[in-house]
């Protein structure tokens, strides 16, 4: 693996007596597509919040894009992109206005925003609807625009939280083509998903169970290790030990 751009050692987060993330350790390399999976309540969202500078850890160590998660959270935020299924862009703004707004948030110059806006809208075939409210666009178009906006300031890492939820399989596959293109440019992609088939698209996958990393490897190596043929089977086996054995 290349020099890690995300590195954690015994990273832990507690809420009172409850341990949401329990001493997780892993590294992610430059240009790697890293899948971060787990059932609801497994701790993956809490872990992502720590890595993006939104939540301080209780203990352990972690660095993101070379910055410490305890003391350099603002630097982390400037060097990452973020996209969520639930909130990324503003529906009451047009596609062009969203690009301008987030370009300003990222500290880009007016000239840079104008140049990048035109290139982005053209590459996504959105020029004909650039001045339409985002609420009027299909979900698949919104998701592709949101991903592109998350990369507008050329971050080293982009965090994608359930980015393809609610879109059709063809749109999901096209979205993953965009992820690969970003990775080919050296952008590290850290993605959570509840679609197990999407785990197959990742270079490596981590599966969290009850706040801990239960498995971490390439999808192929994981399936071979657990003697299963699909990621769905593997996930069930880890979440519910003993499930599916003897079938």
Automatic annotation (TrEMBL):
Molecular function via GO: ATP binding; ATP hydrolysis activity
Transmembrane segments: none
Residues in ABC transporter domain copies: 6-235
SMART domains, A to Z: AAA
Signal peptide from the UniProt entry: none
A Pfam family it matches: ABC_tran
Coiled coil regions in record: none
Gene3D superfamilies referenced in this protein's UniProt entry, alphabetically: P-loop containing nucleotide triphosphate hydrolases
Keywords: ATP-binding, Nucleotide-binding
PROSITE patterns: ABC_TRANSPORTER_2
Protein name as it appears in the record: ABC transporter ATP-binding protein
The species this protein was found in: Chlorobium phaeovibrioides
């Amino acid at each position: 693996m290349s020099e890690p751009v995300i590195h954690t050692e015994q990273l832990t987060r507690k809420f009172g007596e409850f341990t949401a993330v329990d001493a997780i350790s892993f590294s992610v390399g430059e240009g790697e597509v890293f899948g971060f999976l787990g059932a609801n309540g497994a701790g993956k969202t809490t872990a992502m919040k720590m890595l993006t500078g939104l939540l301080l850890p209780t203990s352990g160590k972690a660095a993101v894009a070379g910055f410490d998660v305890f003391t350099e959270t603002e630097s982390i935020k400037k060097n990452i992109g973020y996209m969520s299924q639930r909130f990324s862009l503003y529906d009451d703004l047009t596609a062009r206005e969203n690009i301008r707004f987030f370009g300003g948030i990222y500290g880009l110059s007016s000239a840079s925003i104008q140049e990048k806006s035109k290139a982005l809208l053209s590459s996504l075939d959105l020029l004909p609807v650039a001045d339409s409210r985002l609420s009027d666009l299909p979900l698949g178009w919104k998701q592709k625009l949101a991903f592109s906006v998350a990369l507008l300031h050329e971050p080293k890492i982009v965090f994608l939280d359930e980015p393809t939820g609610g879109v059709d399989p063809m749109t999901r596959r096209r979205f993953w083509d965009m992820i690969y293109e970003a990775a080919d440019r050296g952008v590290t992609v850290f993605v959570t998903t509840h679609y197990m088939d999407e785990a197959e698209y990742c270079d490596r996958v981590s599966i969290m169970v009850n706040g801990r990393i239960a498995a971490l490897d390439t999808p192929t190596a994981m399936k071979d290790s657990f003697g299963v043929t699909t990621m769905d089977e593997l996930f069930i086996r880890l979440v519910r030990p003993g499930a599916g054995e003897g079938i």
